[in-house]
Amino acid sequence: MTSSTLPCDRHFDQDHEVWDHLKQAIADCSGFKQWQSRQIPDNDSSPLDQQVRCYLRETLETLAY
Question: Domain containing 19: what range?
């Protein structure tokens, strides 16, 4: 009998890998860097993951208007 969790685990690993690449691409773009310089104080050390999620949320909210 095969385990049903194996394909799900592989899918999660692939999703995580895609997110890591996407997060890095976003962090390298000029729009993110401009947003970051306006939004994040110099002494804030929020994880990149959290910053990118916030940037994407704000960008999508702006586009929704």
Answer: 7-64
